[in-house]
């Protein structure tokens, strides 16, 4: 939950925000099921050891067993306790022993299907298409299995013949992506910034209405290297003194010197529907991919209108070709990433040049996860989960240090709207659980920490906000940093952790699941269970 408060100053009132701590609820008195099992297993082992060897040595072994169970349940390591690490470590060791860590694309082995007409039939040119992927063709399962980029008609946008849609069969979702731009938010005054935030809040509120087809929203802000061609092109078209003047030569020298550290920023907004939850609407719209596309594009049009009312520029819906290029660019080496001034990136919504039909496999051809990084094609990535957001009052631009860092990175926030009726039930259950846990802690003599007290106040405040008509979202944030080599990635990780501390974010590196975490930073709507 995010709590806002107006804070007075000499220049007027400024809205500040404070995030509540991550709720860590358990089964009994705040204890998770894994913790209870670990302690119970330690006690059982202790009893069995005492029955087997009732001696001083047996007592020592029994105490050691109980202590091991308690340590496994309570001792935190890198933000997780032992019982939380155990399943992850077991899966990692099993995958490493079976050789299934390295994941190769099935597309080359699947090949293409060609239609060849007999001579003299008078048929047209020979046709070809990628082979269907309904059946796996050798190799281990990859994190991108079941994902496909398709094109669906989008009549609401006269400039777009088709809208690109990521069909995620394992998660049963369909996601389309908008390319959007803001208007120099960091340079606005406090009042204008607060107004923009309020407008964005109204957009989110409309998506969380009762009966909404929207399953998830995801915005991704990425920073990529830039060749400076767009700046030079703008200068050539609008310069007054010319390139041969003293001022022109000085400006050109400044642009050339800034070339190696020049970056371009891109913001994508994805919208997803759940094909099972929206099954009735999909059937009413024709069923299958056609009905899914119809429901999804209807929600896209509604979101487009809401964004325009919030003073957010929408460059358009990414077509299937553009969406495939955006996805493949995430694993492209820095030297091959197109600059903002090149033909295929002139318009973010519909890049000119290149076919608009979807790629048969826009995902990385090879994925090799390590314990703390993942190697995709010719790039290395490390993905962090934003475990804690600022718990002190901050202004709307608190993410500035992270946004303006010169690293090649992507920030993804996946949000799931919660309907008002469901949110009310969740709050009622949380308040009941807090009362029961508080009573158990009182009877057992357990200490009520300041964190537990703040979590209880957060639930009460959320209940009040729901009664006032505010919308509720479930969200999770990820930050992925990219580099060309593993050594460069280590330096980039250190720089990222430093700027995240300046933004008052607590990042946790997702050890042992870097391949899954990397997929959460792509515009496919993943990131929440």
Give structural notes.
40% of the residues lie in helices and 24% in strands. It has two domains: 368 residues, no CATH class; 68 residues, no CATH class. A hairpin with a 2-residue loop joins strand 15 and strand 16. The two termini are 18 Å apart. The longest helix is centred in the last third of the chain and has 25 residues. Strands 5, 8, 9, 10, 11, 12, 13, 14, 15, 16, 17, 18 and 19 form a 13-stranded antiparallel sheet that branches. The chain has 529 residues and is of the alpha+beta class. It is built from 15 helices and 19 strands. Helix 5 packs antiparallel against helix 9 and helix 12 runs antiparallel to helix 13. The N terminus is likely disordered. The protein is globular and about 90 Å long.
For the termini, the CA-CA separation is 18 Å
Q: In angstroms, what is the radius of gyration?
A: 27 Å
Helical amount? 25-40%
- Total helices: the number is 15
Largest sheet: 13 strands, antiparallel
Beta-strand proportion: 15-25%
Mean pLDDT: 81
Domains, number? 2
- Overall form: globular
Uncertain segments are 1-11, 134-138, 340-355
Structural class: alpha+beta
Q: Please give the number of β-strands.
A: 19
Tell me the layout of helices and strands:
Blueprint: E1 2-9, E2 12-19, H1 33-52, H2 56-74, E3 76-77, E4 80-81, H3 82-98, E5 103-104, H4 107-110, E6 112-115, E7 127-130, E8 147-153, E9 162-168, E10 173-181, H5 190-207, E11 214-225, H6 229-238, H7 246-258, E12 263-274, H8 279-284, H9 288-309, E13 313-317, H10 320-329, E14 366-369, E15 374-376, E16 379-388, H11 400-403, E17 409-418, H12 420-444, H13 450-467, E18 472-483, H14 486-502, E19 506-509, H15 514-520
Antiparallel strand pairs: 1-2, 3-4, 5-14, 6-7, 8-9, 9-10, 10-12, 10-13, 11-12, 11-17, 14-15, 15-16, 16-18, 16-19, 17-18
Helix pairs in contact: 1-2, 5-9, 12-13
